[in-house]
Amino acid sequence: MSNRPLTDQRPFDDGAQAAPAKPLRGARTPLLPEAGAGGAPLTAVIAVICFLAVLAMAAALIINRSAEAWTSALRSEITIQVKGVDAAEIAAGASAAMRVLEDTDDVLEATLVSEEEAAALLEPWLGRGNAAAFLNIPAIIEVKVAPVLRDDLDLLRNRLAAAAPGATLDDHAEWHSRLATAARSGQMLALSVFLIVLGAACAISVFAARAGLAANHEIVSVLHLVGATDEFIAAEVQRRFFILGLRGSLVGLAAALGALGLVSLGLKAGIGADSFIPEFTLGGWLALWLLTVPIVICFVTALTARLTVLNTLGKQY
After folding, report:
1. pLDDT tens digit string along 253-296?
2. CA-CA distance, 215 to 29, in Å (whole number)?
3. Burial environment of residue 242 by CB neighbours within 10 A (0 to 12, 13 to 18, 19 or more)
4. SS3 for 109?
5. For residue 146, what is the DSSP state?
6. In the predicted model, what is the mean pLDDT of residues 218-233?
7. pLDDT tens, 25-63?
8. In whole angstroms, what is the distance from residue 66 CA to residue 43 CA?
9. What is the pLDDT of residues 153-193, one digit of tens each?
10. Closest to 55 in 3D by CA, of 258, 211, 200
């Protein structure tokens, strides 16, 4: 018996091996390796899918916001044009029309466009200086009206015809209809692209999950032998695909936000300022909506992989 005190005794011999430390729960290796599912390639594909989905969602939101702003302006404004055989008649008709507008309830604001501004509107078609030199440019009055008057303009139209026979009222109804139709078409196209991209994510998840099961057929068989259920294996695959989807979707989101940021900076700098492209900023409502795209892609990818595994295992075992 050893004469050493109990405090000096050790539970193991000097040459004994220490028990290996258990891996952390979040750091454990997956039961099914990435062989067949291709972790890096799948992450790259999901990143591309998320990039396209974010751009499609951004297009739909920007079109919706811009269309609301444009149609709101058309709904609240009307234009009165006063024609005449000479400048004096046009000026007299414009003055009479302005008096009618001042005496009409629910007319919020009336602005007579100057002759120089009216001529500038014709320069793209007639050239600089030609409109004022050769034509009697009609007077243009921009009017903002209340919704009550906007819904029934017949009384105002009749009063203008009586006071200024050369005056015509344009309520922009045709432009409003065309713009609303174009906006709806653009939104439907963007949403269709978004749904197609989600469908592509589902298809890729199906192929990757099947490839992963085929490549790890022996491991799946061993798991069944030790009592693992199909639900357990499907949960492992779902967890793996969710992680891959999260990585790829975050990369795609960052790339899409960078692209949208460059476009926004280009528009603010004047590139395409004269075109029909609406301005937008990457903040507030747009950023919140775009952040939901990676979440949707992650859940779609993981759920599709789970259902694919359950369906495949149900047929094989």
Report:
1. 999 988 888 887 777 766 544 445 556 666 677 788 888 999 99
2. 17
3. middle
4. strand
5. -
6. 83
7. 445 555 665 544 457 888 899 999 999 999 999 988 888
8. 34
9. 888 888 888 888 888 888 877 777 788 888 889 889 999 99
10. 258
Residue tagged 């199909």 (tokens): 230
**Amino acid, single-letter form, for residue 34:** E
Q: Give CA torsion, residues 269, 273, 277, 280, to 10 deg.
A: 40
**Amino acid at position 171, single letter:** D
Report which DSSP code applies to 227: T
Nearest to 139 by CA among 107, 171, 91: 91
C-alpha 62/C-alpha 40 separation (Å) is: 33
Q: What is the pTM of this model?
A: 0.69
Six-digit token string for 53: 């989905």
**Placement of tokens 């949403």 in the chain:** 191
Hey, which of 48-62, 69-83, 84-98, 114-128 has the most confident mean pLDDT?
48-62
**CA-closest candidate to residue 298, choices 203, 230, 202, 207:** 202
Element (H, E) at 159: helix 154-163
C-alpha span between 235 and 238 (Å, rounded): 5
Q: Which residues pair with 142 in a beta bridge?
A: 79, 111
Say whether 271 sits in a helix, a strand or coil. coil
How far out from the chain centre does Cα 118 lie? 37
CA 80 to chain centre: 37
Amino acid at residue number 28:
R
- 97 sits in the region (left: phi over 0; alpha: psi -120 to 50; else beta) called alpha
Please report which confidence band the pLDDT of residue 117 belongs to, taking 50, 70 and 90 as the band edges. Answer: confident
Tokens of 173: 């109804």
| Non-local CB neighbours of 6 within 8 Å, separated by 6+ positions | none
Calpha distance 59→79 (Å, rounded) = 31
Hey, which residues does 44 pair with through a beta bridge? Answer: none
Rg (CA), the chain: 35
What CA–CA distance (Å, rounded) separates 222 from 188?
A: 49
